[in-house]
Amino acid sequence: MHITKFDKGYSRRQFLTKSAQAGLSLGMLTSLWPEIARSGDITKVYPEELLSIDAYTKGKIKTGDIVDANNVDIVKDLLDPIAYKQVKEMGRKIRIVKTTTDITRMFPHKYLEATLSNKGKAKLDSTGNVVIENGDPWIGGNPFPDAKTGVEAFANITLSWGRHDQTLYTVKDWDISPSGTVSYQYDFCWCEQNTTGLLNSPDGPYWKGKKDRARFQSVWFVSPNDVRGTSFLNEWYYDQTQFPDLFGYLPAFKRERRFPTNQRFEPLVPGITIFLSDAWAAGDPMLTWGNYKVIETKPHLGAVSENWAGDDPNWEKPAHGGPKDQTFWLSNMELCPEVLVVECEPTGYPRAPVGKKRVYIDTRNMMFIAYLTYDRRGEMWKSFEPAFSLYDTGKNKVMDGDHVHWSWGHFTCHDIQANRMSRALKAKEITGGYKSGFNQGDGIHDQFLTIQAIRRLGA
Question: What is the pLDDT of residue 3?
C-alpha cells in the first residue's frame, strides 16, 4: 500500500486554516513566491495530491480524460456552481491537462521579470491606491504576488489587464439563444494601452508623462453591417476611486456621446451578454467596489494552459454542447493547486443591477480563472470564464521578443438566468483586415484610443 504523507485530508485542513486567517500565507509546504524566485517551479510548494488530478481523485479522473455529465460529480468541488451545471445538465465537456509547475509558462516573460524584481515595492496609500515608496504609481508586474487581502489580489488584475503594455485583440463572438441557435455573430476589436507600469517603454514605467491615468481602452464592432462602427472608449484614471470617462460612437446618430457610469452594466450590442464591467473580472476601478473579502482558499480547475488554437489558420475552434452543439468551447483545464475566492460589492454604483461578484484567482500568477455575478436579490446571474495559454502548439508559435507569447485564447459569458451564452475567441484576423497584436508602438493610441479615433472608426 502506498501511503501519501500529505493527502487530501491534510490539504483540506490547511485550506480551512488559511481561509480562517486574517492574513493569507500562499503556498503549503513552503512559501510560494520565494520558491518561484529561487527555482521558477512550484513542485516543492504543494503536496502531490494538489499537483496531479490523478492523485487528487485517486485515479478516478486522469490527465487526458474528458469530464462530462457522467463523471463531473467526482470534481464538483473543483468547479464553480455554473460550470458544474453546464457540465451536469447542458452537455458541456472539459478536457483535463497536466498541472503547470513551471511558472514561466503562465506569464508574459517581461511581466514575470518585473513581478520578481519589483516584489515588495508596492503599498496601498491612504485612499487604497497602489503606490511605490515615494507615492508614485506602480512600476510594473504584479504589485502583490503574495497577496494577503482581497484588495491586494484585485490590484494584481486591475492595474494591467492583459499584462502587456498594449494589446489589440481581434475577436469573433457568437451569441447563443436558450434554444441553442446562434442569434448573433459579431466581429469586434478590443484595444488596451496601459499608461503606468510599462515594461517596454524607453521612457520608463509611465507613458508620455500620464501618471494620472491607468489605461486607455476601446472596443469597436466591424461586423455585421447593422452594428458596424459602434464604438466605445474608456479613459481610466490611476486613482481607483474615480470613474472612467466613457464615450461612445453610434453610427445611427453619426456622433459620439458621453455615457453615464451605470452603463457599465449593460450589453454593448444586442444579444451579447458581456458588460464593460465584466472585463477581466475587474472592468471597473477597484475602489468603486468595496467590502472585499477572501471567503475561501481551495484547489480548483482552471483553463490556464494549452488553450490556443494555433493549428487553425485563423486560431478558430469548433463549439460543442447545448441543444444544438453550439453553446460551449472545449476548454483544457488543469488542477490549480491554490485559488483565492474573493467577493466584493459595487459600493460606487447605487443603481447597479449586480449585488456582488465572486472571483476565483490562481495564486501562481494572480490571474482570475472564473468569475460569477449575483443580482440584487442574491441570486446567481452570470459567469465569465477565460482560457489562457502560451501561444505554442509544438508546430506553430507566436513570439514575444525572444520568448513565446502568453495571452487568453477564448472565453464564455453565460447569463444563467436568461440562459443566453456569449462565447468568443481571439482570432488571428477578422473582418476589415484587423489582426491581433501586442506592443505595437505609440501610434496605436492615435489610431484607436481617442474620441477622434472612435469617430473615424465609426464612419
Answer: 46
* pLDDT(334) > 60: yes
Q: How far is CA 170 from CA 203, 224, 246, 272, 424, in A?
A: 28, 14, 21, 16, 10
| DSSP track, 320-347 | E-TTTT-SEE-EEEEEEEEEEEEEEE-T
Against a cut of 0.90, is the pTM above it? yes
DSSP state letters, 274-327? --GGGGGG--S-GGGSEEEEEEEEEEEEE--SS---TTSTTS---EE-TTTT-S
Structural domains in the chain plus CATH codes: 153-458 (2.50.20.10)
Residue 215's nearest CA partner among 437, 444, 373 is 444
The answer to whether the beta carbons of residues 42 and 32 sit under 8 Å apart is: yes
3-class DSSP string for 42-94: CCCCCCHHHCCHHHHCCCCCCCCCEECCCCHHHHHHHCCHHHHHHHHHHCCCE
Peptide bond into 81 cis (omega under 30): no
